[in-house]
Amino acid sequence: MMRGYFTSLGIIAVIFLTACSSEKNTFTNRWFHNTTSRYNAVFYAKANIEELEKAIAKNHREDFTQVLPIFYPVDSALIEQNEELLDDVRGFASKAIDWHRISKWVDDSYFLLGLADYYDAKFDESSNTFRYLNVNSKKKRVRHRSLIQLMRQFTDLGNFEDAAYVIEYLSKEPGISKENKFLLYKTLAYYYEKRQDVNGKIGALDRTLGLTKDKKEKSRINFILGQLYQREGLDALAYSYYREAVKGNPPYERAFFAQLFAQQVAELNKSKDVKRVRNYYDELLKDSKNRDLRDVILYEKAMFEFKQENIEEAENLLKQAAKKEGRNPLQKGYIYQKLAEINYEIKKDFKATKYYLDSALASIRPTDKIYTEINQKKGIFDNYVMHYETINKNDSLIRLSQMSAEEQELVAEMFIKQEEERLLREAEQKSEQRSSGIFDNLLAFGGRGSGESFYFDNTLAMQRGSIEFYRNWGTRPLDDNWRRNVQGFQSGGRDTGSMGSRTEIRDESGPEEPGSTIGQLPDKQSLLAQIPKTEEEVNQLREELEDSYFELGKLLFFDFKEALMSIEYLENLITTYPNSSKKAEAYYILFLANQEINGNPQLYAQRLNREFPESPFTFSVNNPDAIKGNQAFLESSRLYKKAYEQYYAGNFAAARGTIRSTLENYPLTKNTDRLLLLDIMVSGKIDDKERYKNRLENYIQTTEEPQLVKLARNMLLALTGEQEEVKSESAEVAMESQVMEEQIADAEQELENEEDSPFRENPNQTHIFVIALDPEKARESKNLLADLESFHAQNFANSRLRTGNMNLNRQEVIFIVSPFSNAERAKEYRNKFMNDFNSNSLEKNDKENSFLISIENFQELNRRKNLNEYRQFYRRVYK
């Protein structure tokens, strides 16, 4: 019997040993390799892919106020953290292919290899793998799955033509499994999502619901469909999908939003029983399960009040919402964005709008979708506040400078007293608002009720104590034995705002620690030190005032579309500063503003023709139908070249005729300043020296292009004899003509590519400074962020710059510095960076390859991942 047992074992061993061969295509071999491949290599490779996909889903932060994405976005940083998982997938799948070549799981292993390359952003390799399977695989399931994944990859990369070809091919394919059909329609919805085709997206998602039994998947798709139908105004359909989204045991937050939005589309927006609607929100606020969602509830209640035109109540609710802690940091961005909208569109409080936009930006990341929307007007509000505060501050200081020393001291003391009273009023309001909870009542029995005898619960008492301390000791650092310090009592640093106006707006919705008076109250000596003592200082303030009146008037008309407010500031400018160098342009804006309000534009047209007959603004008023844009620039460039050749040949009268006709036919182009300078050079040849000198001086004051100002200044120095040797005019203008030739080529290229380029020129938008490095160098540059922080502390201490880094793609890591309110500020930073920034982590070439990008273009770059494409745009627009 034992002999038979061992004989059987021997036979089995022989069978298994012979089955290990991957060459013999016998039943035993196939059975062995199919079993081993499926339950070892393929099983573990597939498990690793599923683990990675779960990590991608968990890492994604759902923003329920926006339509949820079809697929969870793949974060390259997360992929890098899970690189070992992908390496294991490749290892297991490769073994399944190499060791079990005759198994029926080889094609599945190839697919898993392609999927690993896809998640690793190796799109060429993954594409080749999926194409190979489509051609060579005999398994329909694998072929179809590969094509679906290829379609998703094409959609990721914006290659919609190839994606559409795959869609058409699959639409004709028979025998697609139910599982693959579900993925096909889900990927089709993703394709329509990227193409911004809402109807196609809804149709594809509807088809997916009948193709899966996964309750969690169904819940999420139902929620997305509810969002889409709600945005299309189909409330009845939206309601039914939101109710379905609650099923399947979804995460609490999604279930909460599904119920909230379902109530909105079913009743809240249509209900005339306003009290019942308000009670609904109040009940949600009371529910302890919604503690982390109170910011959302208050926001939604504010939106309801806004629709009822209860603007003040809506604003108060938004401020309450901003104070609540929430699960989604983006919600704060929406809250502050709405507060900014109310202050901008309804209250016309542009200063408050600026600070609310600042708060919104602090709550979101540059890669978030709403960042672009919030930043579209950010730069103009920054400029508005800067010039508005300059006017208030300088006007107050000039008036103070005209008072006696005793009067100045009296004003300073009065200002400090008013600030103390304001702070005490705010503290008192906070004390009154403090709620009396159960613990406060218990403390009250012991004589320690909040706001009464217990000092540290009494905001008003703490504020009074701070003020009293400040009066006696001034600002003191938190040092040990500070009473014995040799420094004077008034040596501490203080915030010394202008007496004429408070230049900081308090964020009423933000938290504030009691007893913070010391950092807010200025001292009398610092206030008095700001008052100008000499005529030169007063003149400097007047020059700043003149500039701010003009810039504010210009900003209000062109950016804020507030013609009446613009007129007020510009009229003030020409009345207060009748000899302003900006007067001609001010007349021009007043002409346009009066056209907007049906005023008297001809008054300013007459003034322009009378006072500034040779101004390009006069030419523009006289020729309102002139060609604009790149076409005008190209035509004026060619005529400039003709005028320059006439000037160089000594035919000055012909040159002047060409210049004047060009300015009249193509006014206010990029060539206007260059044409004006050439006209002044003609003046130097045929007019008297005094006129030539006056025109040069006026040109230097009114022109903003540095190279042309430098050229004009050299001409003036040569005329006055203050500089013995300067380049000849011809050499200077020849150099400028060479620059212009390059600009003409750029303009021609821009005309050809304007429609095709995915990037747009937007200098007033918030900008980001970017350093791009390859991954290996980025890993070696461990100190780069710290070096940038030190650089900012030394040179941009008050700019609140933020630094960070991210993987743009597998070939480039980018280091980001932000935000800059507009392109000009970003250029100033880059110039400082190029000249003064030093770090062992960067080579000279890395610094030179740094670039600037607007936030809108950054979103586009982050989507396309093509840095070379953006660099071409950057060289054309910024350099």
From TrEMBL:
Region of interest: Disordered: 484-520
Tell me the superkingdom of the source: Bacteria
Q: Keywords for this entry?
A: Coiled coil
Q: Does the keyword Coiled coil apply?
A: yes
Q: By its UniProt entry, which Gene3D superfamilies does this protein fall under?
A: Tetratricopeptide repeat domain (1.25.40.10)
Question: What protein name is recorded for this chain?
Answer: Tetratricopeptide repeat protein
According to the UniProt entry, the coiled-coil residues are 524-551, 730-757
